[in-house]
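Hi! If you just cloned this repository, the fastest way to understand the data is to look at a raw example. We've pasted two of them here, unedited. The first protein comes first, obviously.
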Amino acid sequence: MAKVADGIRYAERVVAGEIVAGEFVRLACQRFLDDLKYGEKRGIYFSEPRAQHILNFYKFVPHVKGALAGQPIELMDWHVFILINIFGFVIPLVNEETGEVVMRSDGSGRPVMVRRFRTAYNEVARKNAKSTLSSGIGLYMTGADSEGGAEVYSAATTRDQARIVFEDAKNMVRKARSTLGRLFDFNKLAIYQEQSASKFEPLSSDANNLDGLNIHCAIIDELHAHKTRDVWDVLETATGARLQSLLFGITTAGFNKEGICYEQRDYAIKVLRGYNSDVEGAVKDDSYFAIIYTLDEGDDPFDETVWQKANPGLGICKRWDDLRRLAKKAKEQVSARVNFFTKKVTSRRNNSATCPDFFSNQMKEKDFFLVRRFCFFWKVLAVFIICVLHCVLQKRVINHMALNKLSDKKLRSLLGRRSERQETIADGNGLSVRVSKYGCVSFVFFYRLAGRETAPIWLTLGKYPDLSLKSAREMRDQCRTWLAEGRDPRIQIKIEREATLQPVTVREALEYWLDNYAMDKRRGAEHIRQCFGKHIYPVIGHVPLSDCSISMWIKCFDKIKKVAPVQAGALLRISKQALKFCRVRKYAISHEIDDLEVCDVGKKSARRSRVLTDDEIRDLWRSINTDYDNHELSYENRIILRFLVVFGCRLSEVLLSSWVEWDFDKKLWRVPADHSKNGREIIRPIPDGMFNWLVTLKKITGNKENVIGFDMRQCTASVTIGKTWKRMKHSEKWTAHDMRRVFATKLSDHGFEHNVVEQLLGHTLGGVAGVYNRSQYMDRKKEAMNWWYDYLNKQISGDSNDSNSYA
């Protein structure tokens, strides 16, 4: 894992000359070291915890491309250096009205600290993991910077360019479901965090549509491609309401000396050269971070020894052999030099360096005359060809433009755009797109069946981009063909869709869901199959799904409701999920029960609050410890209940447990992830007093893999244990799951910490703590388990006073 010390060591090695670096990188490193040493004199402080916080965040960020896709990113030293600069340096917050430092409200007497750098300029050659760095910063600023309602944007000249950083960030969340997936949700248009009302979106360079933003972080990718400073200015002014916003510009080199990139580069150089000197034209700006990886003036771009100046990731994320191949090509092909100089070694050389040799001063006058004649001939020929094509194809081009007015670029710009009213835009020949107020784009076909005397019909063909523009036009042409034949397109489309579906029964549809989804992804899939076989299949299982009306479904559920109202509601929810799965897979279609709710056919299970009294615990524990079968508890129930009472575990964890999960050397029970409800391993210490009983049980069970020594289905065990309260003559019903409530309540009442109790129960911690906190609290869990086991034994020994405190 990356450490702050890695970034500091990188700066020291650059300044010492141990790492090949250009002038501007050396200046950035020297500026960092000087600020680290003398910054406090100017009110600049370095917060190592803040710097380490973002480095810790990156260990949950995975690679999204190439052979390492899915594996955690290992930050390079130059990445670490940039991150600890931007996020490590802080300054006291000053009240602009009074000029006084704002103090924290916790009474500590310390000032409120905010980030020093508000703007960052980073120039580096291609394929040095720029987008990876930017995407991670975007995610961090969205959900891990403790900023409420954070607005983070990835901006570029085109929406496709802006989506590069955004899509990388979205794929990072997709590939890290267990970590980043708990912090963020995403859709096609945004990454968002509901808890803090924050979002991360891509933005195109239409500066007129960027007003009204309240930006916490803006990442401007490929800044050299921006021809004007409009986007930069709009984004920069939109950060004023935030206390520690960040405008992060990242780019390769370019030639445009009139654009915002050249202005920012020139300003960055002035800041780097003037941070500790009074050179003419130098600028002192403590809020501006700059680092420029480029060749120095006079460096030979074809000299391998200087390539690392522009490529800090060379040899790690960028291959030497690839750069050598491109250098060789640039040497031989003059036209390839532009790309090599600007994108591979970030050398801002004059364009004349790439011109053909015959334009050099040494070119002979005769050769120049021949070249001019040759170029003139090709110009005349090109004009002639264009005129011929224009005359021949003019009518076809005009007709095509009249019919096909829309483009994919136009449709992409409409996606997600909010407006006050619905809008319809025509493409031609009856095809249009309907844009909702919330930016949902749908293709519709407008037609009449019998001329203008009949009412117009709007037929929805599908949503964009699920249905492409090309496919929508093909469907339009097919609809026009049907109209010419006197057939209704609406009916024909329905016939075609139904013809592609298999005529399946209710039973076949539910079994399809069970076999293709539930068996792999639903706990208790076999129990669901048994419930279907008992309650649904005998009534409507043989009925074709397309013929099964809502009244038939209600009649079936009403029959279940009479004996098991809660189960009726549960079966409705499962049936709706199963039929939706069949619709999505195009296996069978039915919408009959979509509008039914649980209250229509049954009732929801009530949330239980039953906690056994001390007398009931005493009776139960005494029966569990009886060495012979009695009328209250059978041998099997005594074994299962001992696990439930002592460990507070789930019934399924006991029934599925095998001896390989039990570590007798370390006295631990390790419940594997595939046996736990939340998909994570649960580690529970074995109480000292129960250890010998477990060793004896293992000898009794012999070679059987199952811990309890016998096979019992969960539904059977739940029913038999659920009747124990009657046999023990307790006043109120309790279930196997209520043992977990007793376990948690008693430990919490005795003073054991919330995190300790939750881990013993096998619950996951919520919020950011659940992502970063990986402690097992093993000592405290062992104390809790020993106290609980002693407490149970004291109940039947008659000594209920707790003289030995574990809290």
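Ok, and the second one:
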Amino acid sequence: MKPNKPWYQVPLAEIPRMIGSDVQNGLTQEEAATRRQKYGKNQLAEAEKIPLYVVFMNQFKDFMVGVLVVATILSFFLGEYLDAIAIIAIIFLNGVLGFIQEAKAERSLNALKDMAAPMARVIRNGNLDMIPATLLVPGDLILLEAGDRVPADMRLINANRLEIEESTLTGESIAVMKTANVIESTGAVPLGDQKNLAFMGTMVAGGTGRGIAIEIGMSTEIGKIAHLINQADKIETPLQIKLEQLGKTLVWIALLLTIFVIVAGVWHGQELMTMFLSGVSLAVAAIPEGLPAIVTVALALGVQRMIKRNAIVRKLPSVETLGCASVICSDKTGTLTENKMTVTHLWHSGKSFDVTGNGYEPNGEITWQGKSIKATIDQGLTQICQIAEKCNNAKLVNAQQKERSKLILSKNISTWNVIGDPTEGALLSLAYKALKEGKKQGDPTIRIDELPFDSERKMMSVVEQSPDGKTELLTKGAVEALLMNSSHIYWQGEIIPLTNAHRIEVAKQTEEMASRALRVLGFAYRSLQNYKSGENSSILETNLTFLGMVGMIDPPRQEVKSAIQLCRQAGIKTVMITGDHKITAEAIGRQIGLMPGGNSHVLEGATIDEMTEEELMQTVEKVYVYARVSPEHKLRIVKALQNCGHIVAMTGDGVNDAPAIKASDIGIAMGITGTDVTKEAASLVLRDDNFTTIVSAVEEGRNIYDNIRKFIRYLLASNVGEILVMFFAMLMGLPLPLLPIQILWVNLVTDGLPAMALGIDPSEGDTMRHKPRKKHENIFARGLGWKIISRGFLIGTMTLGAFIVAYYENPNDLTHAQTVAFATLVLAQLIHVFDCRSEHSVFHRNPFSNKFLVWAVLSSMAMVIVVIYWDVMQPIFKTTSLSLRDWALIFVAAGIPTFVAGMGGVFRSSQPKEAYKAN
């Protein structure tokens, strides 16, 4: 049965009765079998698998696809089979591209399942056995040792130097020293502080332990995360919403247009069938059938550019969503920081030293007052670094080499990791930095005994013996504990009695380091005479000589501060969400410039628990750092920000980040340090784990959206021009300026290549100097709707003007006038495409900076020339050859819309002229 209070508060004596188990012999095989039937297997539920054919068919549920299907039917009705086939090909290509991107998108729970331990050491019937972890049941007696993955949530009943690395679950980079003692608390205790529990999926860094399984499968903490991932809603991207709105708008326009054209034409004496065909042709022309494919291709090309910038996109629409992210919620450990403890400060003999270097990389130096010094010239410094190396059970390795000695002295290794306690890994790195100019490990000694760390003594000691028989006790631990057991201090080259003044100075320096969120460790030693193995620690660890102390921290990534500043410049708020302690989180936040104007508002998970959703929504706008949070808290924070109208990007690398990553508008995972779970839940994976890559991705996302607006502006302005030509002609009682087949050919020629080339247009250069667009911003906002209508009006009226001039010159040659109108409309649109490249004016951009666009325009114009002058095509498209005089009229009429619009943009724009030179 389950207790009426948290497991960490249950005394050891009550556990067997509560869980129905024996702490010596474990469960019987019969009882285990009975419980397995009751509780099921110890495994995580698999995500419901979506058949590939369903994934493929889902690509065609988009509203715009339905619009294109209608356009296909109408094209067949008009006899334009080539156009119909082209639209079908566009629909199919769009579906294939989307399918390729999404086929692997739903594997989060399967990756979580892989984190479960494959085998477990369990005691049943008093016998030790190795069984598959899936067969564990509540009440099983489980043994743990270094290197194990914890197979279930466990209440520890014995912990011998047991340290468990829980960063993937809690976000803390320091291994947790476990205990079997009950935890007394009146309030809820965060996961990271539940030190008498071990959690499924975490790793044993050192020591041994024994515990009873209290939760298995989906009832474990990692199971709760799996449930959160499964429950997280799928977010429809802003672009998907806007394109669906656009599609519905165009359908209504096309329907009304068809009705009006038919009625107006018949009113002016035109034949019903002719007007019906013209109306349907304009309806098809009003719908830019190439838009979904061009959007998809633009996104896919953006994906390729992002790969070059170390960002891998897993979900295609998320490329554009990045561009409107207004908040980036970042995990601290491994994202903003290195996730590698590093010694940065050292105090000895009244002097403060700095230590350079990053992570576990054994490259760096000790400096004093900005000048590099050699530790070997100071016996006290040398002793501190020798104790750091010898009083240590960790090992440093690199990505290319297997485990070797404690210190690998190659200078050509760039990627280092620690096997064991991250704190001890940092001390090994310090030892190499200090001793690299001298001997490899100081004097060769042999460890003959060890006094392991425990929470009562707060120190660890080893007994080392040199070849000449000299024996020393080397100790590291909490500074206050070492001072209580020290009688002397190494001070300025001498060993002198430890005075009260010394204690005050040491305490002051310790407090100063702690205020900077440094973890402080002290070092001391003692010479031993006539040492006897097995002597009690209370006897050995006395009369120590205090040497000094070091301060270490999981340091911020070097590039993070500038990246956060760039985000702020772009109107994006960056917040840190971590399971770490408040003082550490706040210190890191200040170091990286996270809190503008000295804002120090830090919100802790315990406070979030007491808040309603409304109160949290009112608070999140002014908070930049969240500390001691659980996966549930992260999910609530993301949803609160979304409810405030923000588009939220969530970054992280641990399992604890996965639910919030999946629920966010854009989930970002670390590619190197990130777990498979996090990567599968994310839309974007950073190959270099570099926060700066996020800024690059945001810039790319904004540029993609700007380009989508460009070709929407181009396509719809062109379509408006086509519609107005026909509309004004009917109002004036003129013959049709364009035939249905000519309208369809204009769309085929001008919609394709030029629009595609706009999709890869380079940025105007001010992308990251604007605030992100609003989540519900209409795609026609910021003047786009006016640009479409005004440019379309100018294109339509000038095309109609060219038609009227040609028609009244020779009223008996309607084909000639229609050919002039046809050529004017195409050329006007192809010139207008250069105006679409700028939000300001066509004169602000170098027209040749996009070479793909230049070639696309030339190719499109060539296709028009073919149908005008090739006698085989003339009967099909009802065209005739044009004279140079005709082309003079065409070029003037086609150029006026872009020239007039461009001059208006020059007077309105305040952008400096030199901006276009960079593009």
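That's it. A detail worth noticing about the second one: The chain has a mean pLDDT of 81.
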